[in-house]
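hey
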């Protein structure tokens, strides 16, 4: 680890716990001012903050035991000038429990201090203040205070949730002080273990540390959370799709997706857009972009859709080529082209997924929680030889669920490709990637279906591609016939740069939504609060990632109570946050920076009129240049027709 770098997973780790047995205060390591450039003000933990906290509790700390293997994090003089004795007791860590010698030394010095200064607290910290810290505090409680190991571990977990979270530490404690067979399983890892983009398994001296609950033999460099019982699509059972929970397959799929994307962080590697604001909208005139619609979470489709005369002209000019890709039945009529009517009351759900195609019966879906699902009976033949199957191919897209006559019809819409047969097509221009999806992914499936070698009725879901258009089509997407005829409601637009695929947060991919629909995904925590002379009441506290304090509050209603500690999507309306829906597809709230960006787009919105005006100015400025004769958007727009029957 570089000596000027903050420790991995430190940023969002809680600063401290509560006093344990009236004697110990568990902490994470403090970081001195030299790290301020890497740590936002709200996340800092200077030695002076410890002193202020102790004063607020009206308690005195007389001893601080530092278990880390470095002196670079803060200046011990800042501790000692507050009258606190500082002792360095290096514990190796890196997946190794404190040795018997470490434990005996810790117990001896704490016992001696307590005898001389009985009312004063002892502060204890390692890097994060959970495993080494908890191990030694529990050992003291057992050896010197006659606690059972069960009570010691449970008490520490209550004071510093979730407690010791490494299984080997818990087993070693029970081996020394109880029955190893009675060691509890490690708790679920806390959220801050997964929200840090620099989540390398290194400790303070730069050595690699084994991650809890996994094997280093899988070659994983990042901590990946296993979410047991993950649901592929909420409220719908998709036959042939099962969650992968066992190693090494789980780790192999996750690692392959990370490698294909060039993603060095943990978690889901897919590209993430940012909210459009008055500053980044300027990107639309600085580089080429494509645009597509942004689907809403769950909407009801329209009934009796049909194409108008102008749509027929467009289709005739293009010889129905795009419709064949997007699917749907076109019926030639006298002067008009009609699409088979929608089923009334159809509803759609949308979930983001990447798809890894890695050979016959080796198709996997990866959701935003980085959960992995195996998909059976789904073929992707090689265009040049339909008997062969694609492998080393990674797609990006979204699942939609159509409800037709009460039956669920799932479909996967592909909107990007990162790898094709191990070829790095993600480095190519976006227009080329779109062609690759149609030519190499969609068309070969259709060709094999014609031969009868693919039975689409046996597939768990169908596969299509999602079209993108020139940005000058934005007005037509939102206001033209496209918006009226597309098979589901839209809540905005996605502006995709034509450069190479970038994993993670991408400041070049812009999502525009009407200001009234801009939203943030929070973690809701309902708390009972009151005060002197006040009746206790429930308060909904809204939390975001990387911010220890509540970001905002929401009024608690009868409906909202069921979502306590869940991820909920909220919009800002009438100067307050309003519940929209639960995000069952996410286990973590938006990061602090993302939430702030959304708030900025709410307070300084790009309205639809402003967006259209800006794009019109871009069009006017391009006259006489490469875009002087850009095509009429109507000649490019053709929404996917509503299917007459389930198609691929």
């Amino acid at each position: 680890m570089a000596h000027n770098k903050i420790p991995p997973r430190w940023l969002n780790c809680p600063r401290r716990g509560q006093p344990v047995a009236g004697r110990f205060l568990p902490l994470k390591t403090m970081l001195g001012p030299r790290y301020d450039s890497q740590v936002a003000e709200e996340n800092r933990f200077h030695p002076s903050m410890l002193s202020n906290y102790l004063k607020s509790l009206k308690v005195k700390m007389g001893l601080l035991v530092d278990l880390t293997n470095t002196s670079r994090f803060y200046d011990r003089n800042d501790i000692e000038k507050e009258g606190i004795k500082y002792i360095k007791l290096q514990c190796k860590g890196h997946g190794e429990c404190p040795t018997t010698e470490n434990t005996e030394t810790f117990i001896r010095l704490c016992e001696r201090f307590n005898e001389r200064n009985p009312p004063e607290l002892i502060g204890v910290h390692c890097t994060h203040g959970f495993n080494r810290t908890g191990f030694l505090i529990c050992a003291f409680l057992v050896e010197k205070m006659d606690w059972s190991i069960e009570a010691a571990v449970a008490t520490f977990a209550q004071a510093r949730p979730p407690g010791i979270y490494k299984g080997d530490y818990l087993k070693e404690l029970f081996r020394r002080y109880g029955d190893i067979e009675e060691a509890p399983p490690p708790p679920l890892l806390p959220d801050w273990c997964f929200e840090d983009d620099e989540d390398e398994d290194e400790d303070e001296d730069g050595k690699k540390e084994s991650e809890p609950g996994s094997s280093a033999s899988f070659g994983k460099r990042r901590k990946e959370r296993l979410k047991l019982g993950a649901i592929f699509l909420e409220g719908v059972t998709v036959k042939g799709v099962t969650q992968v929970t066992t190693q090494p397959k789980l780790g192999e799929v996750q690692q392959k997706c990370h490698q294909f994307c060039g993603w060095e962080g943990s978690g889901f590697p897919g590209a993430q857009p940012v909210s459009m604001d008055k500053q980044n909208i300027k990107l639309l005139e600085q580089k080429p972009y494509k645009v597509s619609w942004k689907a809403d979470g769950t909407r009801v489709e329209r009934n009796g859709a049909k194409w108008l005369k102008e749509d027929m002209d467009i289709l005739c000019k293009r010889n129905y080529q795009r419709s064949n890709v997007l699917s749907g039945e076109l019926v030639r009529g006298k002067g008009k082209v009609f699409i088979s009517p929608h089923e009334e009351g159809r509803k759609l759900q949308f979930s983001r997924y990447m798809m890894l195609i890695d050979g016959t019966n080796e198709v996997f879906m990866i959701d935003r929680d980085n959960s992995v699902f195996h998909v059976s009976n789904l073929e992707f033949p090689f265009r040049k030889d339909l008997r062969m199957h694609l492998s080393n191919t990674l797609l990006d897209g979204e699942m939609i669920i159509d409800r037709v006559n009460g039956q669920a019809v799932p479909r996967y819409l592909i909107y990007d490709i990162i790898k094709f047969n191990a070829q790095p097509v993600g480095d190519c221009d976006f227009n080329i990637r779109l062609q690759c999806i149609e030519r190499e992914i969609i068309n070969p499936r259709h060709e094999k279906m014609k031969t009868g070698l693919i039975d689409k009725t046996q597939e768990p879901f169908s596969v299509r591609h999602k079209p993108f258009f020139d940005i000058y089509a934005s007005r037509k997407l939102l206001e033209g016939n496209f918006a009226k005829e597309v098979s589901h409601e839209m809540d905005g637009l996605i502006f995709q740069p034509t450069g190479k695929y970038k994993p993670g947060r991408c400041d070049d991919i812009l999502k525009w939504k009407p200001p009234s629909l801009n939203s943030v995904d929070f973690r809701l925590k309902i708390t009972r609060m009151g005060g002197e002379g006040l009746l206790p009441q429930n308060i909904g506290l809204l939390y975001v990632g990387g911010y220890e304090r509540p970001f905002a509050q929401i009024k608690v209603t009868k409906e909202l109570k069921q979502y306590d500690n869940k991820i909920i999507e909220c919009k800002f309306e009438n100067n307050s946050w309003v519940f929209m829906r639960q995000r069952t597809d996410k286990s973590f709230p938006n990061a602090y920076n993302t939430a702030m960006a959304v708030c900025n787009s709410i307070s300084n919105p790009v309205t639809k009129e402003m967006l259209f005006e800006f794009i019109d100015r871009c069009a006017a400025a391009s006259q006489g240049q490469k875009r002087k004769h850009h095509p009429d958007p109507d000649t490019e727009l053709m929404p996917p027709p509503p299917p007459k029957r389930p198609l691929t």
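Residues 430-450 form the longest helix (21 residues). The domain at 24-193 is CATH 3.90.190.10 (Protein-Tyrosine Phosphatase; Chain A).
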